Amino acid sequence: MAKSPEEPPLTMAQIAAVAGVSVATVSKVINQRTDVAPTTRERVERVMAERGYMLNKAARSLRKGNSGQIDFLVGQELNSYYAFEILRGVEEALLPTEVRMVLASTHALREREQQWRQRLSEGAIDGAVLVLADKRSLYLQELTRRGIPFVVVDPFGELGPEDLSVSATNWSGGKLATAYLLSLGHRRIAALMGLPDHPCTQDRIAGYRHALQEAGVPVDPALIHFANFHAEQAYQEMMQILALPEMPTAIFVGSDEQCLGVYRALFERGIAVPGAMSVIGFDNMPYAEWVTPALTTIHQPLLEMGRVATKLLLRLIAGEPVESVRIELATPLIKRASCAPPQGNLISNPASLP
Amino acid sequence: MAKSPEEPPLTMAQIAAVAGVSVATVSKVINQRTDVAPTTRERVERVMAERGYMLNKAARSLRKGNSGQIDFLVGQELNSYYAFEILRGVEEALLPTEVRMVLASTHALREREQQWRQRLSEGAIDGAVLVLADKRSLYLQELTRRGIPFVVVDPFGELGPEDLSVSATNWSGGKLATAYLLSLGHRRIAALMGLPDHPCTQDRIAGYRHALQEAGVPVDPALIHFANFHAEQAYQEMMQILALPEMPTAIFVGSDEQCLGVYRALFERGIAVPGAMSVIGFDNMPYAEWVTPALTTIHQPLLEMGRVATKLLLRLIAGEPVESVRIELATPLIKRASCAPPQGNLISNPASLP
Questions:
Q1: Which ranges constitute the DSSP H helices of B192-326?
Q2: How far is Cα A177 from Cα A148, in angstroms, rounded to an integer?
C-alpha cells in the first residue's frame, strides 16, 4: 500500500500495530538501535517504507501523538493514598507539557470497558500510565493490540518482554528494613506483609528472609503474616502475632497504613513502641512523620514512580529512544522514633490501662 | 441569523454565551421556570428562536454536551487528601456515565492557562468541577464568559448569584463540635482553625462563638488561633496555646491533619488525651479512626460533595432543571476516643518521658 498524499502520517502506535510489534521496538528501529532482531527490524522498516517514509526522516515526520491526552488507569478502586501519590507524580510530570491526564479506570464494569475501547479506537488517547497491571490486564492487552504506548507503575505480575515498567526496589527495601532491625540487636523479627499474591509483597518478604539468613538468624514461619494493605486487617493480624507463645521484639510491616492498625493493637495490649516493640513500615506516607511515635519506615517513591513513568511515556509517544525496560527506584530507610534496641522485658504502656 | 441546515444545534453553553447569561438561566428558560427576569427570558428565547428552535423542543434538541469530558480544577496544588477525597467523589459520580474527568489544573502557570483557554475554545470540555474557587478565579471567569457549565465545591469566597456550589455545613459543624465539648463540661475551649481567609474557617469559628455564647461562656480571643490546614503549623500553634498562662481543657481543631500536629505537641508536653485535654477535629479522614487515641471529629462529606457537584454538573450539561443554587451537606459528629469530661488536674502522660 503506497502512501497517498491524503493519508496522514502514521503514528508510531499505528506502525507498531501494523507490524505486530511494540511501540518500543518501532522506537528502536527508528533510532537505529542494534538490539532489535533482524527479522523484526525488516518488518518494521517495510511497514514504514510502504507508507513512503524514509527511515532517517521517520523520527521527525511521525506525529508526536495528537489527542494531547493520556489515560491514568488503576487496576483497582481509586481508594488509597497509594494511588493518589502516583497520580500526583503523573500530574507533576505533565505540568510543563500540553498533555492532560484522564481518569479512565473502568472498575471492571462491562459498559465502561466498552466505552474505553471505543475511546481507544477513536484515537482519543496518545498513551497510558497503568498502575498495578500485568499481562492478564484488559488495559495492557488492548493497548498492546492497538499499539498504543503505555508504561506500567508497580506491575502486579508478569509483563510482556518489551513492556516498560517503573517500580520500587522492594527486595532491597525488605532487606534494608530487616537489616536495620538486626543492627539494633533484634533477633525475633516478625513480618506483617500486604497481600501475598502481590509481587511487591513477595519481593519484600524475600528481602526479609535474605537479611535474616545473612545474619544467621533462622526464619520462623510463625512470624510471617499477611493481610491486605489497610489498617483494619493489620490490626487483626497483629493481635494474632501478639498471641504467639514467644512474641517478637520487632516487626517489619508492609505499609504505613497497616502500621496504624499495628500501633492500635500494641496500644490496646499496653505494649510500648519502641520500648517493647520496634515497628518499621513501608511507604513513608505524609502522615508517617506525624503518628506517635513518629514512624520509622522505608520510603517508597510513589510520586517519583508516577513522574518517571510519565516521562518515559512521553518519550515513547514522541518516538524518542528509551533505554531501560524495567526501572526500579530506590527505597531508602527513613529513621524516626519507632525502632530501638530490644529490651529484656515487656513494659506495659500505662496509657492503655483503663 | 436563521438556522441553516448545515449548522449543528447550539449547545446550552453556546446559547448562554450568545445571550450573555449563565447556563443555569438557559436551563430555567427551557424548563419554563418562573424565577427568571422577563427581559432575560426574552433575550434567551430570542437567541434560541434565531437558531430556529421551538422552545418546547429545545430541551431535547440541544446537544447534551459532546466532548464527553469534564475538567477537574483545583485552585491550589493537588497536594492534600482533601482534594483527593473530592476527586474520588467526582470519579464515583461519573462511573455510570460516558463522561470522563480530566485533571486540568493550571497551577498558575501562564503557559498552561493559555493551553487551558485553548481547550475551552476548541470545545474540549462539556463542563467543570471547580474546587476552592470564587469570583476572582480565572477558571470561573473563563467558564462564565464562554457559557460552559460548572459547579464549585467548597467555594473560596463569593460566587456569581447563579453559580452553583456544594459545600459542607461549616457553621453547624463548628457549633456542633463546640456544643459537644460544652456538654462534656468544658468551659475553657480553644479553637485552632485553618487559614483565616478561608470561608470554611470563618463559618466554623462563627459556629464556635455561637455555641459558646449560647452556653453563656465568654469568648476568649487568646484561645482562638489560626494556621494552615497541615500538621506542622498546627504543632507550632499548639505549642503557643500550651504556653498560655491558663490552659484550655479542650480544643476544637480545623482539620484532622492539624490534629496530628496537636497530638504531637500534647504528647511532647506529656499532656494526656483525652484525660487532660479533649481534642475534636474536622474532616473525618480515613486515618482519623486509626490514630491513638482514635479521633473524635466532625465529618466533612468531601466525597459526597464531589459526587453531588458532579451530578449537578451533569444535569446542567444535559439541560435538565437544577433546583438549588447553594447546596450544603451535613457535617455529623463522629464520637471516638479523644474527648472526655474535664479533669481537675493535668495528668502527665508517662509515655512521653524519656
A1: 199-214, 231-242, 256-268, 302-318
A2: 38
Could you tell me which of B244, B134, B154 has the C-alpha nearest to residue B194?
A: B154
CB of B107 less than 8 A from some CB of A: yes
The complex's ipTM works out to 0.77
- A-chain residue closest to B259, CA distance: A290
| Residues of chain B contacting A96 with CB distance shorter than 8 Å | 111
User: Cβ atoms within 10 A of the Cβ of B2, count?
Assistant: 8
List Cα–Cα distances, A73 to A108, A130, A132, in angstroms: 12, 5, 9
| A164 sits in which H/E element | strand A164-168
For residue A101, give the nearest of B102, B109, B111 by CB distance: B102
Contacts 24+ apart (CB under 8 A), B33-36: B33/B321
Residues of chain A in contact with residue B102, where contact means CB-CB under 8 angstroms, are 69, 100-103
Q: Across chain A, how many H-helices and E-strands are there?
A: 12, 12
Please state, as a whole number, how many other Cβ atoms lie within 10 Å of the Cβ of residue B284.
23
- Tell which residue, B47, B23, B42, has the closest CA to residue B162: B23
Q: Are A95 and B107 within 8 A, CB to CB?
A: yes
**H helices within chain A, ranges in order?**
12-19, 23-30, 38-50, 55-61, 81-94, 110-121, 138-146, 170-183, 199-214, 231-242, 256-268, 302-318
Instruction: Count Cβ atoms below 10 Å from residue A106 Cβ, excluding itself.
Output: 19
Query: Could you give the residue ranges of the DSSP H alpha helices within B109-252?
Result: 110-121, 138-146, 170-183, 199-214, 231-242
Alpha helices in chain B (DSSP H): 12-19, 23-30, 38-50, 55-61, 81-94, 110-121, 138-146, 170-183, 199-214, 231-242, 256-268, 302-318
Q: Is A267 on the interface with B (CB under 8 A)?
A: yes
Give the C-alpha separation, A67 to A107, whole Å: 23
Interface test with A, best of B72, B73, B76, B100 (most A CBs within 10 A): B100
pTM: 0.79
Task: Return all residues near A149 (Cβ < 8 A) that are at least 6 apart.
Answer: A12, A13, A23, A24, A126, A127, A128, A143, A313, A316, A317
CA atoms of B263 and B279, how far apart (whole Å): 8
β-strand B278-283 against B250-253: which pairing, if any? parallel
Are the C-beta atoms of residues A298 and A269 closer than 8 Å to each other? no
Q: pLDDT tens string for chain B (354 positions)?
A: 333 333 445 667 778 888 888 878 887 777 666 778 878 888 887 777 666 444 433 333 344 467 899 999 998 766 788 999 999 999 999 999 999 999 999 988 899 999 999 999 988 999 999 999 999 999 999 999 999 999 999 999 899 999 999 999 999 999 999 999 999 999 999 999 999 999 999 999 999 999 999 999 999 999 999 999 899 999 999 999 999 999 999 999 999 999 999 999 999 999 999 999 999 999 999 999 999 999 999 999 999 999 999 999 999 999 998 888 999 999 999 999 999 999 864 444 444 333
Question: In angstroms, how far is CA A230 from the centroid of its own chain?
Answer: 17
Q: How many helices (H) and strands (E) does chain B have?
A: 12, 12
Cβ atoms of B199 and B156 within 8 Å: the answer is yes
B337 reaches A (C-beta below 8 A): no
